[in-house]
Design a protein that fits this description.
371 residues; mainly beta; Leucine-rich repeat, LRR (right-handed beta-alpha superhelix); 3 domains; 23% strand
Length: 371
Amino acid sequence: MNDNEFSIQTIDAKKVLAKYNGVSPCPAIPDGVSVIGEGAFEGCVSITRISIPEGVSVIGEHAFDGCSSLAKVDIPDSVSVIGHSAFYGCSSLAKAVIPDSVSVIEDRAFYGCSSLAKAVIPDTVTVIGEHVFKGCTSLVKIDLPGSVKEIGKGAFEGCRSLSVIDIPDAVTWIGERAFYGCTSLLKACIPDGVAEIGKSAFWGCRSLAKIDIPCTVKKIGSLAFRECKSLARIDLPDSVAEIGSRAFAECESLIEISIPNGIKELPDGVFAECRTLSGVNIPDTVTKIGSDAFWECVSLAEICLSLDITEIGKGAFYGCRSLAKIAIPRGAVIRIGEHAFDGAHALTIFTDNPATVKFAEEQGIPVKPLK
């Protein structure tokens, strides 16, 4: 070992490896080092293996960022902190074993480790940070321990080989884009205790055929299940009080869905391009149907609205060419947006509502009295 290869500093009585200046494929970290500093090995593309010695407690931010040839790393039990982006872009790294001494896997720790096929997470870890495994395209399965309480934003985004995920019972929140683009994911069971499914959480999970949503979930974020093209049925519990815009858009296999009692608004594009959706139960609590809510739902045949409906948004039923009947009671609907029923050529509106009758006549839509 050439001592000139390493820049060592003493900070707060700790030996910090500040920078590696060598070109060895397997550098030996000097004895006595307790901290691998920020960016210490950043961009060292010649490194293929590194064994971190016992006694190191901190792997700093970006410590091995861009070490694209690093295929194996040994992390000792003395390590308690794996910093932000510590192994970012280590595209040859095949396996990561995280020691029991770690409780939080910091943001982007293994981002872009495209060869990572296995990650072992101990039951001391409580938080999977933001984008931790984003772009780990070889990751097929990961066992999350029961200690995990939070899955951060984009934690598994783009893990396109991930087919199975068991979300621990302790999890209360699934972050935005947590499983975005996990195109091989077949099933996800969301445990009791989860209150919110974040924005775009499962967007693009094209193989997802089954999702279990517990009665603790109160909010489903915008785009949460967009482009889940294999999802045929979703049972939404009555605990759900809010559904975000385009939450189920482009779920091309979705046949039927029941909207929970308590939902007040079907937001913009919520079921847009759900081309096999033939049945939807809209409860009396819904007062507004947003713009493009059922845009191009070409299999939708019939809709019954409640007395409390006040607005049908722009393009709400645009292109619903199988829609033959919509019932609008007297006293309901104050506003009907532009192009709300354009392309619904089979439609007859059943209503005794004078404003709706006038609208239908102006649009050339047949009207029959509501019985």
